[in-house]
Here is the input.
Amino acid sequence: MHVILLEDLSGVGSKGATVNVKPGFARNYLLPKRLAIASCTRAANLYQELARQNQAQREKLVAAARAEAAKLDGVEVNVPAQANEEDTLFGSVTSAEVAEALARAGHIVDKRRIELGDHIKQLGRYDVTVKVGHGVEATIKVWVVRA
Here is the structure.
């Protein structure tokens, strides 16, 4: 019996794949648990149409994420921090402080999307990655300056 899998199943196939399984396995396990639909039914056509629509929607979301990343890419922000004479900070710069500096510059970004590679404990310029979403990232420049 040919079925279209609605979820990834180890040993059977991945989501969206059309696989041939034994009728008892499909009838007693896959279909009642809604892990698959029969490929010869109207539901299969509906599933394929929904998959096409979901793909189009994902492409729109990725395009929007790329547009947002283009706005953020290359933005420079200043983060004031207290430091000693050797330019070592008394604490470290956090992603919340970078998000706050971005907000002052007019870019609202959640602090959880900001990835600081290592701890920022020196004055200077750092490249920081911002995950915009859907696999799209932007790089901003953070200047840590003496407060």
